[in-house]
Amino acid sequence: QVQLVESGGGWVQAGSSLRVSCAASGRSFSSYAMGWFRQAPGKQRELVAAISSGGTTSYADSVKGRFTISRDNAKNTMYLQMNSLKPEDTAIYYCAGRRSDSQSYSDWGQGTQVTVSS
Questions:
Q1: Mean pLDDT estimate for the chain
Q2: Which end of the chain is more exposed for a tag (fewer CB within 10 A), N or C?
């Protein structure tokens, strides 16, 4: 099990960049697959980007080419670099982790708000 804490959210104008971070505690971080989810008001939570324990990444079509997920296992930290932000990126962003042999994310952070104004 890992404990996750997000940081770095905020308010930005459209076209700007922002990086959110997810700090993990616990010994298992490097063996976990990790993901960034987001949930906008009135919408379902969606997986935005994911990174395997080995560093393989995947992205939702809506953010492909604009967002980059990365991890630093030495620092027990995961990042989401968000460029060319759009108002529709406004949401609470959550980091989550799962054991590499599991399909379900079992550990979640509390979320960080990202607001993009037009």
A1: 96
A2: C
